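User: two proteins, same treatment. go.

Assistant:
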Amino acid sequence: MTPEKHLVYCRIERTGAVLLLRREAGTFLGGSWELPGGTVEAGEPPEAAAVREVAEETGLAVSVGREVGRFSWMDVTGRDLRVHATVYMAHETESAEVVLNPAEHDAHAWLRPAEAVRLGLAAHFLQSVSTPG
């Protein structure tokens, strides 16, 4: 049986723009853009993981809404690992400035979906950003 890893991401919007983060150079997939999110810990509900990951990566407090998409693929490094990702709509519970975790991300941008697609996003992020909020 192939081992599995579960990831969660959040699509957060402000005035029609979606929050995207750029991975720190020197990290896995450094320089690529993504939605805020990360790994679901053992025994952790996915929605709780999404809220935790957004807080850790951006300093934002959010509540999780509907599911935007569910995706699966084999690990891109060639390991025998199936990755599952769920993307949720998320809503800020209070307005705040984005404060990045510099160990993970070096930039952020609020972009309209038409602008975001020019970043060369991975397929699951591209579909999630392109789907109307």
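Protein 2:
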Amino acid sequence: MKGRGVGIMLVLIGLGLGATFLRDQVPLGGAQTAPQPQSAPTPAQEAAAKLQNEQNTIDVVARFEPGLVFISTEDVVAQDPFMMMMGGEQDEVRQGLGSGFFVNQAGDILTNYHVVADGSGQGAADRITVRVMDQDTSVEAEVIGLAPQYDLALIRAPKLARSLVRPIPLGDSAALRPGQKAIAMGAPFGLDFSVTEGIVSSTERQIPIGFSASGGQGITQKAIQTDAAINPGNSGGPLLDSGGRVIGINTQIYSPSGQSTGVGQSAGVGFAIPINTARSLLPRLQAASGGTVYAPVIGVRAGLLVQSRQGELPVGLSVLSSSGKRQLKLPERGLVVGEVEPDSPAARAGLRAGTQPQRFPGGAVVLGGDVITAVDGQTVDAIEDLQAALIDKAQGDTVTLTVVRGEEKREVGLTLDASSFQTQEP
């Protein structure tokens, strides 16, 4: 994670821990027979067992660490005019550090968006350089594609010698099981080409990842949780399994100390973007020509807006009071469809936009149309929920929307087409 203010501070509340304690039981058939003690392992056996796991880690690191990339960024930030009048420097250069890894022989480097983002979090830094293992000098890199909502980016260093490009094979995050070995590579606190080891603690931890189209908090997605030590600078680096295959891209940490110090530190709870998510996005990043790709869309806009300091923001029905929803004859939760774009997947699926605009203190709502309450059984209450349900979908995929129209609840099939995956802000 970078050393500037574009990282994400994650606070988790209400995680419960439980344990089941079992005591040894003597089989009924052996009640009159004293249990035979088992021989203790010899020091040689203990050493062999220990060295087997150690040797596996050593082999994985030796073979695949050359595919790791150390990333540095520089971003020129205009000084405050008042400071300039007082004789201060005209421009400030902010620096950041992170990690990445080669995904193919063409030299494409996968990393986190926040590793290469500028200070505003709305684009790439002014200068990005990369350095590979056993090399003293860094090489300029360029952006191939950005995916802020996924916290992913693809960069490439055209002047890097092809002989130094060492892709790391991609694994299958869908096949992961808690308890599997996890090896994290990266540059914690700028200590480049560092390695830590742990296990996969969870395979489907739901957390906000990345940044929304407006630069705010990202979309809630499934992440891999690991206890392998991850610290600032590890972001964008690979999380590998015991076969040396990338199973995730390190992205966030849970850091209670960071709430008071402002600098996150490992607490044994780190998160990685599943490699299957990155793999499905890779073709779109490669075709982005330096632009930005976004989560799939279906062609609807929210019909419930509330006033904020940033203007009117789209929200879900859960923000309204129960009495207000009863008065408006709306469900408890859901995304009000305020607009349906012509010739979009939503239009072809027959979704209906509201036709009766109505203002209320602090906002406005468009009534008379559909309310989307779920996608493939996953509850929807806002645009972000809709994006989260679609984020791992591909062109041609069909999803089932649960829609409420008036007092009628029905299921609607919707197929994503090319328009769902345009490289433009939704």
